[in-house]
From TrEMBL:
Keywords: Signal
Protein name (record): DUF4468 domain-containing protein
Taxonomic superkingdom: Bacteria
Signal peptide: 1-18
């Protein structure tokens, strides 16, 4: 029984460590993350990343427009995409949902990659551009302004789901 319990603990630790770090929202946006992966040629990782984005587009998982690929080299790619219902906030009991345009800049190395996730434009639920950026929702001390309850949690959940989906594609392409 002790051996079975030990095996279970080892498996749980292995699964828990096999995920990218969570992206955290601050007044400046999201900090870049470094993600460890098995050794793979960067060119292959760029190719798998393109395939991942095209598959999400084909299945209409998180956006209503296609993805754009820019700055593509042997070890880098930048993807621009849209996400409906990317975040919401509650103000005076009313919930407001927003769509975002974002970029994901990947730089691949032999056994890791760096990901920079940037929200480039915020839209209302009816696709009207909002004249504010993420920093406008925060006070100077880095906390959310009053009236934007759940904005940080909902956007972090959305972004981390996208990041996790990409990570799983890289881990499962073999």
């Amino acid at each position: 029984m002790l051996k079975l319990y030990s095996l279970f603990i080892i498996l749980i630790c292995g699964i828990a460590s096999a995920q990218p770090p969570e992206m955290k929202l601050s007044e400046g946006g999201f900090e870049p993350i470094d993600v460890s992966i098995p050794a793979t040629k960067p060119e292959k990782l760029v190719s798998v990343t393109k395939t991942w984005a095209l598959e999400r587009q084909r299945r209409k998982i998180d956006q209503d427009k296609g993805y754009d690929f820019t700055n593509v080299t042997d070890n880098t790619i930048t993807i621009t995409g849209f996400k409906k219902n990317a975040f919401y906030y509650t103000n005076l009991g009313e919930q407001f949902e927003h769509r975002i345009q974002y970029t994901m800049k990947f730089t691949f190395y032999e056994n890791r990659y760096t990901l920079t996730f940037t929200v480039t434009q915020i839209y209302t639920d009816n696709n009207t551009p909002v004249q504010s950026s993420l920093s406008d929702y925060f006070k100077s001390d880095g906390t959310l302004k009053e009236g934007y309850t759940n904005l940080d949690i909902s956007l972090e959940t959305t972004v981390n789901a996208i990041v996790q989906s990409h990570y799983e594609a890289l881990m499962n392409f073999r």
